[in-house]
């Protein structure tokens, strides 16, 4: 008896160490053959296609997934948010695949990466697939948070090779273009440390998004940004022929479509160096996307005016996809700020419902409107990551139900029994 115990304790101790390592590092191998089956999403004219059927990528934004996957104590949040999304019938999550030079940076300096953070992104992709969720991965931000184009300009300036201190030199400085291409190649050809599958070969990734909310205000003609889009989209397609590609445009019309300038929120929106129709006519842009934030875009409007603008803005862009671009269209961000002086939960839900109804109508008629992504979802304990648009779905029952009901409607259009079964019990029948 005593001898058996003497052998037993070391075995238990060893097993405990292994379990602790597994839980803390998460660095375990998951063979690609053991993952749930997934196919690449494709495009046929104005429709997304999956396994020969029309696919409506209804989803949400949680930009913070990679960041939260870095540390042991926060990694569980990644799985939590995917599970919540699935219960609402959502199929795609948009998130950042960049962090340049900041805390927990993926790219520490040009072409130099933190393996620990890359493994966090690996983990996000594995968890998404495990839960049957696809990802839109954004490659850089126009804004300064998490580096963005500002960090690239700073790197070039510090090395004494930058041609300008302007943030917009990100788009035209040849050295910075090289920096960005190095980063893009590293991400697209990354071999997932858990599955051994290169990102460019992984169907968990729905699409790459070149940039979030690009603007090039030093060149309102739009030529500089357009040249950058053409070069970078061609570069990505040369490396990765499997995945779809888009831009995270706000949707403002520009100089090449003067007849549409009156659809913009205000005159300033046509002078930001973006040109929605021209940008998405780029051959390597597989689908168009735009954002909806009237409470940030207008100086002084009633909530009724804002909601009327939402209808006009969304309808105009769906029409563009159908008649001009001949491509699917996503709303990759929308929301209502709780700092809006007209904010109420009812007004926020009304805003959501307008967008959902327009997308559902487009889907029923097989038009180009394909899906809408709420900004943004959080989980408990993430107050520091919140903003005036974010919320925890499980703590907002009426919003939760509204989102899930929209998922039910799209699932019925697609005749997707699997999706219907995923949605929280009873919602589709109520």
Mind explaining what this structure looks like?
There is one protein chain. This protein is α/β, with parallel strands linked by helices and 430 residues long. 42% of the residues lie in helices and 14% in strands. It has helices at 2-25, 65-70, 76-87, 115-130, 148-158, 169-172, 174-188, 223-239, 276-281, 294-297, 303-325, 345-364, 397-414, 417-422; strands at residues 42-44, 47-50, 53-55, 59-61, 92-96, 107-109, 112-113, 134-138, 205-212, 244-248, 288-292, 329-334, 369-375. The strands form 3 sheets. Strands 10-9-8-5-4-13-12-11 form an 8-stranded parallel β-sheet. Strand 1 (42-44) and strand 2 form a beta hairpin. The protein is globular, with a radius of gyration of 22 Å. The termini are far apart. The model is unreliable at 1-29 (pLDDT under 50).
Averaged pLDDT, please?
91
Using only CA atoms, what is the Rg? 22 Å
Instruction: Give me the side-by-side strand order of the main sheet.
Output: 10-9-8-5-4-13-12-11
Number of alpha- plus pi-helical segments: 14
How helical, in percent, are the residues?
40-55%
Question: Residue ranges: pLDDT <50 for 5 or more in a row?
Answer: 1-29
Strand elements, count:
13
- Order of helical and strand elements: HEEEEHHEEEHEHHHEHEHEHHEHEHH
Binned strand content: 5-15%
3D shape: globular
Largest sheet: 8 strands, parallel
Structural class: alpha/beta
Distance between the termini: 62 Å
